[in-house]
Specification:
Layout (H helix, E strand, L loop, with lengths): L4 E2 L9 E2 L4 E2 L11 E2 L3 E2 L7 E2 L11 E2 L10 E2 L4 E2 L9 E2 L4 E2 L15 E2 L7
Antiparallel strand pairs: 1-2, 3-4, 5-6, 7-8, 9-10, 11-12
Length: about 120
């Protein structure tokens, strides 16, 4: 299957579309491989809601400077993640780990941090 689709039926050639405003990696085999694109938020495989800047702050995985409240929320920088909604900044990944900067995924958990090449751990 191409990005933005998945096939959860073994032996079937027809791929299903991810929910609106979501994408997936090529060859995805489950709906939960679909994740919201930048500017949208929702659990994997679920409908994606538009990330709207508000007095409640940015959704997990997105941030902005609290003093510049009028600016839209943006994705956490490489090697950073944010677990909760609000104005709090993105947190650094542990030493010798990073996030996939080429992904459209919003990094919402420390589990999005992966070891850099040459390092291993949990």
């Amino acid at each position: 299957c191409v990005p933005g689709t998945y096939n959860d039926m073994q032996g079937q050639a027809l791929c299903k579309n991810c929910p609106k405003n979501a994408t997936s990696i090529p060859a995805s085999v489950v709906l939960s491989n679909c994740y919201c694109t930048v500017g949208f938020f929702g659990p994997p495989g679920s409908p994606c809601e538009e990330e709207i800047s508000s007095t409640f702050g940015c959704f997990p995985g997105l941030t902005r400077d609290e003093e510049r409240w009028w600016e839209p929320c943006s994705k956490c920088a490489e090697a950073k993640y944010k677990m909760v909604r609000g104005f709090n900044p993105c947190r650094d990944c542990p030493a010798n780990s990073t996030t996939n900067s080429s992904s459209n995924h919003n990094f919402t958990s420390i589990f999005d941090c992966k070891c850099r090449p040459g390092f291993q751990g949990s």
